[in-house]
Design brief:
alpha/beta; Rossmann fold; Helicase, Ruva Protein, domain 3; Zinc Finger, Delta Prime, domain 3; two-stranded parallel ribbon; 9% strand
Length: 358
């Protein structure tokens, strides 16, 4: 959470960059940061006077520059926020070229020609207006090889909002409990983090329910959490993958059946299972090529918690088997969409086949 604390401290001191790029998976902290910036620039007055929000998917880059160059009203600086700026993401052609190199995401410094409608923005980033604080919110996926990203990094500030590590999540929950005049013991916090996952957006929603449920209590216990917060689907998928890897197919099928009864979409479940197998293959390949844990996490953009879960399952599958399973899952997806096969019987056949592999 150091990146967030440093950002907020610089905001309090009014030490600001002329342009920012906020990106990453931790959307809750992005929303919090943007809220603090709006409050700072509005000074308690109507935020519409000197704070403008623009949809980056609906407005071209050249128009964003025109708006960014507008003078502030009755103040020294104004704030402009651009949500979902598509020009920081890789173009389809770029993605194909990237995959053609190694089949994996590679960090590189590939020179690319900026489209005409981005040239004006690139010129602006070379010499941004000192009277405008421009914030781009790009989400989790962007292309750091693009000249736009490199130029913004040089003349402004890029902030990656990554998921918090477990000790930071514990501190965040302890602060929430303290604000409510309560305590949450370590075991209860562990269960809450495990069930809700590392995303603060989910944790905040689950905490609010838990806080209301325990009104009048001084200490929140694991039993309270277990009573109210069910495990995230992603964690159930890890359990299913463990069962598949250890060839306990009936256990895996039982858990899949429970998710279906809980109204989870068959297509979503199939997609999540396929994603786990893809990550297994990627981690197996990268580790076989000598990549360190840190390098794999960075390259695949995984949370350390997710990496550890998948890495522990790697020993249960060889690469040939993983390629074959992914091929079968791809065919299954097509057959289920076209009605040639039903989800549960088809998955049952696949898991039985896996369990019989030597």
């Amino acid at each position: 959470m150091l990146y967030y604390t440093e950002l907020m401290n610089s905001l309090k001191r009014d030490v600001l960059a002329p342009v920012y790029l906020f990106y990453g998976n931790e959307t809750y902290l992005i929303q919090q940061a943007v809220g603090h910036f709006v409050e700072h620039f509005s000074g308690g007055e109507d935020p519409e006077l000197n704070c403008e929000i623009v949809d980056g998917e609906a407005v071209e880059a050249a128009e964003i520059v025109v708006r960014a160059e507008a003078a502030p009203f009755f103040t020294d600086k104004r704030l402009m926020i651009v949500k979902n700026p598509s020009f920081f993401h890789a173009k389809p052609a770029d993605k194909k070229a990237k995959k053609a190199q190694t089949g994996e995401e590679e960090e590189g410094n590939i020179e690319e020609k900026s489209p005409v409608n981005e040239k004006t923005l690139l010129d602006y980033l070379e010499n941004p207006m000192p009277t405008t604080c421009l914030i781009f919110i790009a989400g989790a996926s962007l292309d750091k090889r693009k000249k736009l990203f490199r130029t913004l990094s040089k003349n402004g500030r890029t902030v990656e909002f990554a998921y918090l590590k477990k000790p930071e999540l514990h501190r965040w929950l302890n602060q929430k409990a303290q604000n409510s005049g309560k305590k949450i013991n370590y075991e209860a916090a562990e269960v809450l983090i495990k069930n809700a996952g590392p995303a603060l957006q989910n944790l905040a929603m689950e905490w609010e329910k838990l806080d209301n449920y325990t009104t009048g209590q001084e200490v929140i216990t694991p039993a309270d959490v277990g009573q109210l917060v069910t495990p995230a689907v992603e964690d159930n998928i890890f359990v299913i993958m463990d069962a598949i890897g250890q060839k306990r197919c009936w256990e895996a099928l039982r858990d899949i059946r429970e998710l279906l009864l809980a109204k989870e979409s068959p297509q979503r479940l199939l997609g999540m299972i396929a994603r786990q197998f893809r990550l297994l293959l990627q981690i197996s390949d990268l580790s076989g090529r000598g990549c360190t844990e840190k390098e794999i996490i960075s390259r695949l953009k995984l949370h350390p918690y997710v990496y550890q879960k998948i890495a522990n399952q790697k020993k249960n599958f060889n690469q040939i088997m993983l390629v074959e399973i992914l091929s079968i899952l791809s065919d299954l997806e097509k057959d289920i969409k076209t009605g040639r096969q039903e989800f549960y019987p088809a998955l049952e056949t696949l898991l039985l086949r896996i369990s019989l592999e030597n």
